[in-house]
């Protein structure tokens, strides 16, 4: 059966050559008509940022074009009933070519300087590479892509103060990925505070429409992880850290999601915001010692229940449902209730079908955490972070969720 990329050019994967111009056109149509809608959770009638901002840049820059083609071939390969060597090879070749282009841009930056267009292209390539990691396995070795462009995001903001819509989208998306990986280990936070402050003050609409996380929660997460990073580096004392955590927790508890600013009047935004609020509250409670509070503690249980209840208020067919992925993962990782665990499994399976992303890493992390919890006596927590960011791990990865 042929796979249709769009109305303009149906392309059969059975005789996919992955080398000629027709194939490039086919992959671009698949990116536009399949990948972009599956990535986005934009309201009906709103423009899709992955199409609006990435495609025009990709048609002007070969490196970004190859990054987008690699991401697309990877996504298409995951939809095949059996492994497709041609698609997998193409995805790898395009990604390697994109990495080479990114390296050339960053080398030029070291030796000379970059134009604003080249800076924007570098950020877009990194976003495509990070999403490629997410599609492929859900892990990114050491998050090198994000680390490598943290200074570019900071410089863009310091130099101009006002970003273009495409720059704002790229900075916001990359900042969110950096913040999200900080959940597993605050020491992994690479983006400087001024970038997160810019997103919180100037990119509120972009952040909410892209992720579903309201700025109040984003700020709370940012402050919590920044404090956690300083605490782990022994730059912040425990008593001062605890005071900061308590203040942030009280602000979150008092915040009413119905008062937030959202892209439109859809009630799903409020439910998403509530899920993110309790996700942030759980993370605060896990500092400074992730082992100290068992998941049976009423504060953890209440927030887990709130996340799951919020998810029931977002219809399964809604494009916003996919943005519940990380709050649902965290709820599942923080509960010892079998029926709550199974509910999340069903939700994640549905999100897999919505997005076409396999999310093997999520299943792997949850199974390891649940196994550890079954073997424990329940007096102490079994942190899922021990499987992502621990001194006992021979190799660490950044786990990615989107």
Automatic annotation (TrEMBL):
Its main location: nucleus. GO terms for cellular component: nucleus. Signal peptide: none annotated. It comes from the Eukaryota. Pfam families: Fungal_trans_2. This is Fungal-specific transcription factor domain-containing protein. Coiled coil: none annotated. One of its GO terms (biological process) is positive regulation of transcription by RNA polymerase II. GO terms for molecular function: DNA-binding transcription factor activity; transcription cis-regulatory region binding. Transmembrane segments: none annotated. Keywords: Nucleus. InterPro entries: Fun_TF (IPR021858). It comes from Didymosphaeria variabile. It is found in: Nucleus. The keyword Nucleus applies.
